[in-house]
Design a protein that fits this description.
single chain; 231 residues; alpha+beta; 7-stranded antiparallel sheet; two-stranded antiparallel ribbon; 2 helices; 30% helix; elongated; transmembrane
Length: 231
């Protein structure tokens, strides 16, 4: 009798295991690719939400700026709003649940940092001290970082000219004795940022000038002027 043994040859086994290894590699590669896509999407959503929250905070506080003196000029005039390319300082009410409610001097400032710039924010309760040597809560307050990964940025302003008409966008408020009509913050994010900075234009809710009753019509004229320039 001839005994015939059936089964796989060594070559067939090697081929099967090779095919299984290739299939498993493709499966794990797909799983890893999907995991990285999900993580990337979550990081994008987080970055969008972070910028949206920061913009809401800035818009809420700047839009409610009050015509309250921050400091006095040498001529004895009240400076109500300091507007510079890299910094704005103003008085705006703080919500009571964040600590001491009421009018606070607030500052937004672009500061050079490692790898670019950061946007800092600090605030302090408006002081009624008559003693010039006494430090106000604002002067002793510590800044907090609102946003990082900024490549460059600047503030711009719309004010009233001598004819009581809205100006073009200005890089700086020369005096600050009158409140601006609008404030814009332009930011260019660097390669480490997960999201670009959407255009942020803020219209102030109140006008400290004596022509506050004309404010709506002034803003309407400025909007028409912008529309004409864009066409």
């Amino acid at each position: 009798m001839n005994n015939k043994q059936t089964g796989f040859t060594l070559l067939e086994v090697i081929v099967v295991f090779t095919l299984l290894a290739m299939i498993m590699a493709m499966i794990f590669s797909g799983i890893d690719s999907g995991r990285r896509m999900v993580a990337k999407g979550e990081a994008k959503i987080t970055a969008i939400n972070e910028i949206r929250v920061i913009q809401n905070i800035i818009r809420h506080q700047v839009s409610r700026a009050m015509p309250v003196a921050i400091e006095m000029t040498d001529e004895g005039e009240m400076v109500k709003f300091i507007g510079q390319p890299k910094q704005i300082t103003y008085v705006s009410p703080m919500p009571g649940y964040l600590g001491s409610g009421g009018p606070h001097i607030q500052e937004l400032k672009l500061v050079n940092a490692r790898g670019g710039m950061v946007l800092e924010y600090r605030h302090g309760l408006v002081s009624n001290y008559d003693d010039e040597d006494e430090h106000s809560p604002f002067e002793t307050s510590e800044p907090m970082v609102l946003l990082e990964n900024i490549d460059d940025g600047y503030f711009e302003f719309v004010a009233m000219d001598e004819a009581r008409e809205p100006t073009e966008w200005l890089s700086e408020l020369e005096k600050g004795t009158d409140m601006p009509l609008m404030v814009r913050l332009n930011l260019k994010m660097n390669e480490n940022a997960k999201q670009s900075w959407p255009d942020l234009q803020i219209a102030l809710q109140m006008d400290g000038g004596r022509h506050s009753a004309r404010r709506p019509s002034i803003l309407n004229r400025f909007q028409r002027l912008q529309s004409g320039e864009s066409q």
